[in-house]
Design goal:
With 85 residues, the protein is an alpha+beta fold. 31% of the residues lie in helices and 36% in strands.
Length: 85
């Protein structure tokens, strides 16, 4: 089973919101998933994401591949958590 961490679209027309999901690559974008590990709201200003970095690291340790967009969100979240420490 090839596992990936990617976005799934939710929300209404012209008001997109996304969930960060751990899913099998064979499942459709908005279909079945294994676990929800965060959210992303591109319309909001400032910090527009919420990620569970511990669970994301766990899944990466299990071999999950990360999409480009989620990788950029993880990078931003890592910088934000390093700045608060």
């Amino acid at each position: 089973m090839a596992v990936t961490i990617r976005l799934s679209r939710t929300g209404c027309n012209n008001k997109p919101a996304y969930r960060v999901l751990v899913t099998d690559t064979r499942f459709p974008r908005d279909g079945r998933f294994i676990e929800i590990v965060g959210s992303y709201d591109p319309k909001r200003k400032g910090e527009n994401y919420a990620l569970d970095l511990d669970r994301i690291r766990y899944w990466q340790g299990q071999g999950a591949q990360v999409s480009e967009t989620v990788a950029s969100l993880i990078k931003r979240a890592g910088k934000a958590s390093a700045a608060t420490v």
